[in-house]
Structure formats: structure tokens, C-alpha cells
Specification:
globular; 5 helices; binds fe (ii) ion
């Protein structure tokens, strides 16, 4: 069961117009669209599919409002698909569509799907950073990003009422590995053949178990300049920050989350941990400090940039 990626995420929404604007501004490429469907891709060919909420092609909603209706994980081979189908069929329905994708649900009722991955390897351009002792960029100005073009879709996050049941299912039945954990509260899981720190994060926020649903979908960008360029572009286009920019101690990445009209958040990440069998999983207490080394709560809208500095105007009280 060599799960490699988050291959595709499908949303159900009341309004395709807002969805089209959001994901286009976020930097995904629009691959297909009609009056019922939008399909976007990241540079690695992972896809975001958006359908109208009442579309019979969608799995039933498992939470109110717009949100993710299904997450499709990529596997290496047809043999992996066969193994997953056999395992899940022991105690739940497994459907197969005309393209060979498996469809089922996890123990909490979250729809999951599996297909041979359609993602391709991508390489970020050389960042050409200048650091003492290593000049990556001589006699050349640093690149400035007007917007982002996410390279890889890396992880999906759900708030769940019972982490134990969910983690046992993903680890024992589907071969996910625990990269790091807030014991009893949150588990960072990667597919058995993935080098991403996590493809799936299951969180019981506050330990109360009273929140259930999709939280956010994350994408890796090429470098810190692109993360800030993408976030500033989203802000200029009027999208609201969910949280960030900031940095996670667990997985080490810089982040910037935006509220998504399709449901939950969409996250830019840069410099996430890449791991293999030698990675040593850690256990952490769930605190604000283990969530974010630092972060802005509401983006850059309150920053000097948005008070006139960008146009050279003088801010009142300053010279
Ligand atoms: Fe994330």
C-alpha cells in the first residue's frame, strides 16, 4: 500500500464563480471548466476539483456548508490499489469508477479515494540565495514574485472527534506512518511511500472532540520569496488571511493560510521537512508555541505596506 501523494481534492460549493476566482488567484492552473465543474492543477499535476454542492457525482457532504467532499490519495501501482481494495472491503463498501479510482470512507465517515498517482516530479528553480561563503547570485538582483504558482499539493487536514480510531485506520490499514504527534490530540501522517513530512494531519482541537470537518489544504511553493509574493497577491486581490505568514516548528515550514470560499483554508508552505525511513518521529505538547514559532494573526493588511508605504506616501506621524 505504497501511498505517495495527495493526488486530488474535490470540493462541493454553492458558487463556482468565487471558487474559480480563488484558485486562479492562488496560482493553480485552470484545466477544465463548465457550468458544473472546475478542475485546477498545481505544477506537479495534482488537482483540485470543484463541483456544485448538489452534484450527484459528489459523495454526500459530511459537514454543513461548502467543503471538501473527497480526498484522493495517489499510490505507486495497480497492485497497491488492489491491496487497498481488498483491505477496505473487509468491513466497508469500496466502489470503483470508470477510471479505476477506488472510493470508500474512513471510520469517521470522511470520503477517501485512491488511484495510481497522476502526479509528476517537479523541481523548484535554483533559488540563487546569497549567504556568507556561498554566493548564489552575483551581480544580479533577487527575484520578486508578483504571485505564486504552487509546485506540489502536499497535505490535507481534518479536525476529528477521535484521533485514535482515525490514526489506527490510516496507519494499520493503509500503511501511513506517523511523522510527529501531539499524543492523543494530533497526528502528522505520511503515505508509506511519501517523503513529505505529512500528507494528512488529523487534529482533535482542544481535545474536546466537538469539532469535525475539513480544515485546510496545503501546497508547497519554490522559496520564501514566492510564499510572500503569493500571500501579498492574495491580499491585494481581497482574500482574507486565515493565519500567517508564520513558521511551524513541527515540519519546519513557513506558512500563510487564506480563507477559502470552497471551505476551510488554503495554505502556502515553503521549506517543509522531507523525510524517509531514518526520520525520528517526535511527540510534542499541543501549545501555541509548538504550533507556530511566530506568526501574524491576520496577514499583512495592517502592515506598513497597506498604509501607503508601497506608493511612497508618508505615514501620519512618521517621517
Ligand atoms: Fe498545513
Amino acid at each position: 500500500m505504497r501511498i505517495t501523494t495527495v493526488d486530488s481534492v474535490t470540493y462541493g460549493v454553492p458558487d463556482l464563480v468565487q471558487a474559480k476566482r480563488f484558485w486562479s488567484d492562488f496560482g493553480l492552473t485552470l484545466e477544465a471548466h463548465n457550468d458544473r465543474l472546475l478542475r485546477f492543477s498545481a505544477m506537479d499535476a495534482s488537482t483540485v476539483e470543484v463541483r456544485l454542492a448538489h452534484d450527484p457525482a459528489l459523495p454526500p457532504a459530511f459537514e454543513p456548508g461548502p467543503g471538501v467532499r473527497e480526498t484522493t490519495f495517489g499510490v505507486e501501482t495497480e497492485a497497491d490499489l488492489d491491496a487497498i481494495a481488498a483491505e477496505l472491503a473487509k468491513d466497508r463498501h469500496v466502489g470503483v469508477d470508470e477510471k479505476g479510482t477506488l472510493h470508500s470512507v474512513d471510520p469517521l465517515g470522511i470520503p477517501i479515494a485512491f488511484r495510481v498517482s497522476r502526479c509528476r516530479a517537479v523541481s523548484a528553480p535554483d533559488p540563487q540565495f546569497n549567504v556568507p561563503g556561498r554566493t548564489g547570485r552575483l551581480n544580479a538582483r533577487g527575484v520578486r514574485y508578483e504571485s505564486a504558482r504552487p509546485l506540489e499539493m502536499t497535505h490535507v487536514v481534518y479536525m476529528v472527534p477521535d484521533t485514535r480510531v482515525a490514526v489506527d485506520f490510516y496507519a494499520d490499514r493503509l500503511g501511513f506512518r506517523i511523522s510527529d504527534a501531539y499524543p492523543g490530540r494530533g497526528y502528522f501522517l505520511r503515505g508509506g511511500a511519501s517523503n513529505n513530512h505529512h500528507n494528512l494531519f488529523l487534529l482533535n482541537p482542544g481535545g474536546t472532540g466537538d469539532k469535525f470537518g475539513f480544515h485546510h489544504l496545503a501546497f508547497e511553493v519554490a522559496n520564501i520569496h514566492e510564499l510572500f509574493g503569493g500571500g501579498l497577491n492574495m491580499t491585494r486581490k481581497g482574500w482574507k488571511t486565515m493565519l500567517g505568514p508564520g513558521r511551524h516548528p513541527i515540519s519546519s515550514c513557513y506558512f500563510w493560510y487564506f480563507l477559502n470560499p470552497c471551505g476551510g483554508g488554503a495554505e502556502y508552505d515553503f521549506d517543509s521537512d522531507v523525510v524517509d525511513d531514518d526520520w525520528v518521529a517526535g511527540e510534542f505538547e499541543q501549545t501555541p508555541e509548538t504550533f507556530a514559532e511566530w506568526c501574524l494573526a491576520a496577514g499583512m493588511e495592517e502592515s506598513l505596506l497597506y498604509q501607503g508605504v508601497q506608493t511612497g506616501e508618508t505615514i501620519e506621524g512618521q517621517t
